[in-house]
Design goal:
Blueprint: H1 16-22, H2 25-28, H3 32-48, H4 54-72, H5 85-97, H6 110-146, E1 151-156, E2 159-165, H7 166-191, E3 193-194, H8 210-217, E4 221-222, H9 226-231, H10 234-260, E5 268-269, H11 288-312, H12 326-349, E6 351-352, H13 354-359, H14 367-375, H15 381-397, H16 407-413, H17 427-433, H18 442-457
This protein binds arginine.
Residues 24, 28, 84, 86, 110-111, 114, 318, 320, 322-323 line the site of arginine (ARG).
Length: 459
C-alpha cells in the first residue's frame, strides 16, 4: 500500500478506525477549488525565489488545473489513504506530473495551507450571503413601500399597545437585517488576512514574498505573526457569532409571522409554497417554513458554542483540534444561506389581511392619544394618563368602546374635555401624529425606506 505523505518516521500502520477518525476529506473536499488556487499562487512564489524553474512551475500549475477540472467534472477519484483535501490534491498532482509534484510543498505546511483555504472559502461564501441578505431586505422594503396604508395594532408584551403602520413593523425587521449587513461587511477585513507563507509555525525559510501571495489570492492583508497565522481561528468564531445574531433576527421575525398567521390573529396567510399539511388533521396548514427559520437558530448557536469550546483551551499555533472548525462553519454557512432564501420567499409571497388588522384595532389602543389630548390642553401627562385610564375603566364597566362614551361622560372625568374629543378616535390620525424621526407616520416610514435603500446601495 502507498505511503502516507508524512509516513517517513512511521513504521507501524494507522489503525483503520483512527484513519476514519482523523480524515476530514469527507467534508473539507468542498474547499477543493480554493485549495488549488492557493497552490497555484504558492507555486508562482516558489519560482520567484528560484525553487522552481518557470518550466517546473508551468507543469505544476497545469497539473493543478487538471486536478481542479477532475473535481469540477465529478471525476476526482478519492483514495482510501487520502486524509484531507490538501493531501488528496497533492497525491493526485504527483500521479499526474510525477515526482516534480513533490516540490510544491517546499516551505509550506498544511497548517498555513488550511488556514488559507478556510479564509478564502469563507470570503467567497460571505459574498453570496451578503447578496442573500440584500435580496431579503429588498423584498421587505418593497412590501413596506406598497403596503403603507395598512394599519394594525402594535404590541408590547403581546398586548395591544398603539396603532402602527404594517410597513413600520416590516421595516423594523429590515433594520435588524441591515445592521447584520453592516456587521458582515465589517468582519471581512479580519477574514481577509493571508496566512500563506507562515509555514508550519515559525515562518518561511525560502523567503517567499508573502505580500505577492496575498495579492495573488485577493487578500487585503498579510498575517504579521506566523504563530498567530496558523493558530488563529477568530475569523471562524466571528462568523459564527455573526450568523448567530443574524439567525436571531430571522427567528424573531418568524415568530411574529407565526403568531399573525394563527386563526386567532388572522393577519397574514403563508403561501402554500412555504407551508405543509398534517398527516392526520385535514384542515391544517402549518407554517413549517417559519418554524424552521425559528428553530434553525438553535443549531447555529450550537455551532458557535461548540467551536468556542474547542478553541478555548488550545496551546499556541496549530493543533489537530482546529480541524473541528470546519463542520460548524460549513453548517452555519449552509443554514444561514438557506434561511435567507426561505425568508425572502416567505415574505415575498405572504398574503396580508388588511381588514383583519383593522378589526384588531380596538379603541383602547388610542388611550395614549386620549391622554395626549389633555396634555395639549396644558395638563401634566401623569394626570392625563390617570384620567384616560379612568375613561378606559368607564367604557369597560359599560361594556362599550372608548369612543362610545359621550362628551358629557368625558367632561365628568375632566372639565378640559370638549366637543372635539371624538377627533381623537381616528387610527390614521394617531399614526400620522408620530412624525418625529423613527415614528410610524407616512412621512417617517418613507424616510425609513429611503434609509434602507441607501444602506443597500452602499457596498
Ligand atoms: N485537515 C487538517 C485541518 O483541517 C489540515 C491541517 C493538518 N495539519 C497537520 N499538521 N496535521 O486542520
Amino acid at each position: 500500500t502507498k505511503q502516507k505523505l508524512w509516513g517517513g518516521r512511521f513504521t507501524g500502520k494507522t489503525d483503520p478506525l483512527m484513519h476514519a477518525f482523523n480524515q476530514s476529506l469527507r467534508y473539507d473536499q468542498r474547499m477543493y477549488a480554493v485549495d488549488i488556487k492557493g497552490s497555484i499562487a504558492y507555486a508562482k512564489s516558489l519560482t520567484r525565489v528560484g525553487i522552481l524553474t518557470p518550466e517546473e512551475e508551468k507543469k505544476i500549475t497545469d497539473g493543478l488545473r487538471s486536478v481542479l477540472k477532475e473535481w469540477q467534472d465529478g471525476q476526482f477519484q478519492v483514495q482510501l489513504d487520502d486524509e484531507d483535501i490538501h493531501t488528496a490534491n497533492e497525491r493526485r498532482l504527483s500521479e499526474l506530473i510525477g515526482p516534480l509534484g513533490g516540490k510544491l510543498h517546499t516551505g509550506r505546511s498544511r497548517n498555513d495551507q488550511v488556514a488559507t483555504d478556510m479564509r478564502l472559502w469563507l470570503l467567497e461564501e460571505a459574498l453570496d450571503i451578503e447578496a442573500g441578505l440584500k435580496a431579503l431586505i429588498r423584498v421587505m422594503v418593497e412590501r413596506a413601500d406598497k403596503e403603507k396604508d395598512i394599519i394594525l395594532p402594535g404590541y408590547t408584551h403581546l398586548q395591544r399597545g398603539q396603532p402602527i403602520r404594517w410597513a413600520h413593523l416590516l421595516l423594523s425587521h429590515a433594520f435588524s437585517f441591515s445592521s447584520d449587513l453592516q456587521r458582515l461587511q465589517q468582519l471581512i477585513p479580519r477574514v481577509s488576512v493571508s496566512p500563506l507563507g507562515c509555514g508550519a509555525l515559525a515562518g518561511n525559510p525560502f523567503v517567499v514574498d508573502r505580500e505577492f501571495l496575498a495579492k495573488e489570492l485577493g487578500f487585503q492583508s498579510v498575517a504579521e505573526n506566523s504563530l498567530w497565522g496558523v493558530g488563529d481561528r477568530d475569523f471562524v468564531v466571528e462568523f459564527l457569532m455573526w450568523s448567530s445574531l443574524a439567525m436571531t433576527h430571522i427567528s424573531r421575525m418568524a415568530e411574529d409571522l407565526i403568531i399573525y398567521s394563527t386563526a386567532e390573529f388572522g393577519f397574514v396567510t403563508l403561501s402554500d409554497a412555504y407551508s405543509t399539511g398534517s398527516s392526520i388533521m385535514p384542515q391544517k396548514k402549518n407554517p413549517d417554513s417559519l418554524e424552521l427559520l425559528r428553530g434553525k437558530s438553535g443549531r447555529v448557536f450550537g455551532n458557535m458554542a461548540g467551536f468556542l469550546t474547542t478553541l478555548k483551551g488550545l496551546p499556541s499555533t496549530y493543533n489537530k483540534d482546529l480541524q473541528e472548525d470546519k463542520e460548524p462553519l460549513f453548517d452555519a454557512v449552509d443554514t444561514i444561506s438557506a434561511s435567507l432564501q426561505i425568508a425572502e420567499g416567505v415574505i415575498s409571497t405572504l398574503e396580508v389581511h388588511a381588514e383583519k388588522m383593522r378589526q384588531a384595532l380596538t379603541m383602547d389602543v388610542l388611550a395614549t392619544d386620549l391622554a395626549d389630548y389633555l396634555v395639549r390642553k396644558g395638563i401634566p401627562f401623569r394626570e392625563t394618563h390617570h384620567i384616560s385610564g379612568r375613561a378606559v375603566a368607564m367604557a369597560e364597566s359599560r361594556k362599550c368602546q372608548l369612543n362610545e362614551l359621550t362628551v358629557e361622560d368625558f367632561k365628568s372625568l375632566n372639565s378640559n374635555f370638549s366637543d372635539d374629543i371624538h377627533d381623537v378616535f381616528d387610527f390614521e390620525a394617531s399614526v400620522e401624529r408620530r412624525e418625529s424621526i423613527g415614528g410610524t407616520s407616512r412621512k417617517m416610514v418613507d424616510r425609513q425606506i429611503a434609509t434602507q435603500n441607501l444602506t443597500m446601495a452602499r457596498d
